Amino acid sequence: MSKNIIKADGTTEPYSEEKVKLSLIKAGASEEIATRTAKELTRAIKNNMTTAQIYNRALRQLEKSEPKAAIKYSLKKAVMDMGPDGFVFEQYIAKILREYGYNAEVGQIIKGYCIEHEVDVVAKKGDTIYLIECKYHNSPGTKSDVKTTLYLNSRFMDISKAHVKNNESANSKFKAWLITNTKCTSDAIKYACCVGLKIMAWQYPEDENLQYYIESKKLYPVNILPVISDKQKERLFDSNIILVKDLLNFGVDSLVKLLSINHSKVEKILDLVKLIYGNNMEK
Fold first, then answer.
1. What CA–CA distance (Å, rounded) separates 22 from 29?
2. Which one of 73, 107, 122 terminates a domain?
3. Stated pTM of the model
4. Mind listing the pLDDT tens digit for each residue in 182-208?
5. Does one domain contain both 120 and 32?
6. Beta strands 198-200 and 173-180: pairing type?
7. What element of type H or E holds 179?
8. What is each CA distance from 146 to 117, 128, 163, 177, 182, in whole angstroms?
9. Would 122 be classed as within a structural domain?
10. How many Cβ atoms sit within 10 Å of the Cβ of residue 116?
11. Domain range holding 67?
12. Assign residue 102 a region: left if phi > 0, alpha if psi is -120 to 50, beta otherwise?
């Protein structure tokens, strides 16, 4: 008998063991572990379970069998748990962009033709300046809708008009960019394509989406480590330590002092960092 599952947006779809298996393999689980875990989930799943409940069951099993794959499997949730507001997410995006060769600054005030605008992230690469609106959502069913792209485009037009008026755009061009950790509605994407706005969502576009940008260079947020408590996460974020790779710059004693925990707990954190980056611990 087929079973239905309830997605984050409230819609239902048939449960697929194969889909679960593929998601586990994508996270780095072996074929054997992915197959066994998916079969165990199939036996345990009841009709109309939520995707969150299924995810939690899969993660617990993966943490026991393949800890490294479990870390990657929890990436989307870790980004969604970065904070109640979007400030840390903005810093995270700026750090990611710097890893890809952009000059990026957070919370910049830019004078438009009519008013001043606080832009979440201003990034520059080559002769292009990107005015970036970061839309952070801590609920998986929340999407950025067309109002967001309309708002972004109106701000972009005001800033562009000011630069044309002041002859400041001769050696550079401006582009508006929406970056979100969830999805965008079809109308938001349609409007963005029509007016030339760039969008990067969790799995949009098909290539070079946010998930790709993070995973290609292992730019995981520190709270992806299961041994990091909420209190420790806040201390790290408050110190602008957002990427797991940022921890490579600290010794055991420094982290003991920063996190107010003992050496044993710090060593567990660093063991997971080694698990992600390997023995070479590339910076």
1. 9
2. 73
3. 0.89
4. 999 999 999 999 999 999 999 999 999
5. no
6. parallel
7. strand 173-180
8. 20, 25, 26, 14, 14
9. yes
10. 11
11. 4-73
12. beta
> What DSSP character marks residue 139?
S
| Residue 211 sits in the same domain as residue 122 | yes
Q: How far is CA 128 from CA 119, 173, 184, in A?
A: 16, 5, 24
H/E/C letters for each residue in 189-248? HHHHHHHCCEEECCCCCCCCCHHHHHHHCCCCEHHHCCCCCHHHHHHHHHCCCCEHHHHH
132 with 49, same domain: the answer is: no
Whether the per-residue pLDDT at 170 is higher than 70: the answer is no
Return all residues near 93 (Cβ < 8 A) that are at least 6 apart.
104, 120, 121, 132, 134, 179
Residue 283 lies in a domain: no
Using DSSP, state whether 95 is helix, strand or coil: helix
Task: Choose one of 216, 232, 250: the last residue of a domain.
Answer: 216
Q: Work out how many domains the chain is built from and give that number.
A: 3
Q: Which two tokens stand for residue 6?
A: 């309830």
Structure tokens at 200: 């990067």
